[in-house]
Amino acid sequence: MNVMTPDLLEAERPYLFALAYRLLGSAADAEDVLQEAFLKARTVDDIRSPRALLTTIVTRLCLDEVRSARRRREEYVGPWLPEPIATGEPGADDRTIAAESMSMAFLVLLESLSPLERAVFVLREVLDLDFGEIAEAVGRSEAACRQLLHRAREHVAARPARFPVAPTAQRSLTAAFLTALGTGDLDGLMRLLTEDVAFTTDHGGKARANLRTVAGRDRVARLMAGLYDKSMKLGWAGVPTWLNGAPALLALEQGRVVSATVLELVDGGDGPRVANVHTVRNPDKLAGLDQALHAGRIALMA
User: Fold this and answer.
1) According to CATH, what is the number of the domain 6-86+98-157?
2) Looking at domain 167-294, which of 3.10.450.50, 3.40.640.10, 3.40.50.620, 3.30.540.10 is its CATH number?
3) What's the pLDDT tens digit per position in 237-260?
4) What is the pTM of this model?
5) 250, containing H or E segment
6) I need a labelling partner for 25 at 20 to 30 A (CA). Which of 58, 91, 113, 262 fits?
């Protein structure tokens, strides 16, 4: 029997939070799952390692939560995006929060998988668990898990090929992007966007924003320039930072976070460009960032 001491549980928290967040796309829900998992773990007799036991408990709680969350999202107003989280600059964090598997684009892609496919994919492809551990965690046979992984891999492989951008290039592209935005250089801004760039805003019906995703270099550039101009007239302040392992911009109104924009940067062979702009305006999804900012837990981009 493993005795789950408070110190042991806290030591596993970063790993377990990263797992729960990838499965749920919500930092608040992930924290709730961890709290429940820690209570359950203290009452379970199990010969496995503490991490293996906690992985099973967290995964099963997440499967229950994601099924109910999907029902709630059927009534969600406008596009849905994951809750953004502060991660620091790519390469600055440990392996449990690798930038790619915490990115907004990756989490949005995971939303298209079934709950079981998503769980198996994350446990195998991100956390590198063996099929015996995965089968125990999701309550299915190893053969079933292999089939679930096959389907998930096929779906993920069907997305357009994207190539990551080195951190140094991310910094320079983000600086150029913010300069073009701040100076109203529309042509310069368009040169930094991919031809099929998309701009998506999650507002949940609780903030003014576009109801649909806007696509195309010209439309996105003009939309962003207009939104930036409007934010300046409202007296908002912009804070460049890193969210979900990517360059981002927080908008503050009287010191309060009212918007978080995350840039997905890709290299299609002709240099790095912005492929997706994900903006979260739903105040429910910004509360955690607001608390982190005022507690000094958000890394600012120099």
Assistant:
1) 1.20.140.160
2) 3.10.450.50
3) 999 999 998 999 999 999 999 999
4) 0.89
5) strand 246-253
6) 91
